[in-house]
Amino acid sequence: MNRSKLLAVITGAISIILAIAYLIIAQLLDFRGEMLPAPQSQLPQSPMAVAQILIESHPAHIPEPVNDPTLK
Fold it and tell me: Long-range contact list for 8-16, CB < 8 A, 24+ apart?
C-alpha cells in the first residue's frame, strides 16, 4: 500500500472514531434528563431594579446632580 492510500485509511479511521465518540457523548448528555431553565425567582424583574441595587450597594460612587440651567 502506498503512502497516500495509508494516509487516507488512517484519516478515515480517525473520522469514524470521532463520529462514534460524538454520538456516545450526545447520548450520555441526553440521558441526564429534562433541561430546566434557571429559576427566575431570585432575579430582579426590571433594569431599574438592577440600577436600584447598584445605587444602594455603592452610594459613594454616585455623583451629585448638577442644577445648571444651561444644560437644558
Answer: none
Sign, Cα dihedral of 32, 34, 39, 40? positive
Cell numbers at 62, concatenated: 454616585
**Whether pLDDT at 18 is above 70:** yes
DSSP classification of residue 72: -
What confidence tens digit (pLDDT) does each residue in 23-53 have?
999 999 888 878 787 777 766 566 667 677 7
